[in-house]
Design brief:
There is one protein chain. With about 130 residues, the protein is mainly α. The protein has a domain of about 50 residues. About 100% of the residues lie in helices and about 0% in strands. The chain is rod-shaped. The N and C termini lie far apart (about 195 Å).
Length: about 130
C-alpha cells in the first residue's frame, strides 16, 4: 500500500501545483498585457506631444520669418523717410541761402536808394555854394 499511497500524494500535489502555476501564468500574462498597454499609451502620448511641439516649432519659424520680413520692410521705410528728411533739410538750407542772398541784395539796394536820395541834395548844396 505504500506504493499506491505515494502515487495519490503525487496526484494530489500535482493538481494544486498545476493550478498555482496556471494562475501565476495568467497573472503574469495580465500584468504583461497591462504593462504593454500602458507603454503603448505612453508612446502614443509622447508621439502626440512631439507632433504638437513640431507644429508649434513650425508656427514659431513662420512667425520669425514673417517678423524678419516686416523688419526689413520697416527698415526700408525708415531709410526712405530719412532720405526724404535729408532732402527736406537740403532744400531748407538752399532756401535759407537764397533768403540770405536776397536780404543782402535788399540791403545793397536800400543803400543805393539812400545814396541816390542824398546825392541830389548834395549836388544842390554844391551848386548853391558854388554860385553865390
Amino acid at each position: 500500500m505504500a506504493k499506491g499511497g505515494g502515487k495519490t500524494v503525487k496526484k494530489t500535489l500535482t493538481l494544486p501545483v498545476a493550478v498555482g502555476v496556471a494562475i501565476l501564468g495568467c497573472v503574469l500574462a495580465v500584468s504583461a498585457n497591462v504593462t504593454t498597454s500602458k507603454t503603448i499609451e505612453d508612446l502614443k502620448e509622447e508621439r502626440y506631444k512631439r507632433m504638437l511641439a513640431e507644429e508649434q516649432l513650425q508656427k514659431a519659424k513662420n512667425d520669425v520669418t514673417s517678423l524678419n520680413t516686416r523688419l526689413v520692410e520697416t527698415q526700408n521705410k525708415i531709410q526712405g523717410i530719412e532720405k526724404i528728411l535729408n532732402q527736406g533739410r537740403t532744400e531748407a538750407q538752399k532756401l535759407e541761402q537764397q533768403l540770405s542772398a536776397i536780404q543782402q541784395e535788399k540791403a545793397t539796394l536800400m543803400q543805393q536808394i539812400e545814396t541816390m536820395k542824398t546825392a541830389p541834395q548834395d549836388m544842390d548844396m554844391q551848386e548853391a555854394t558854388a554860385n553865390p
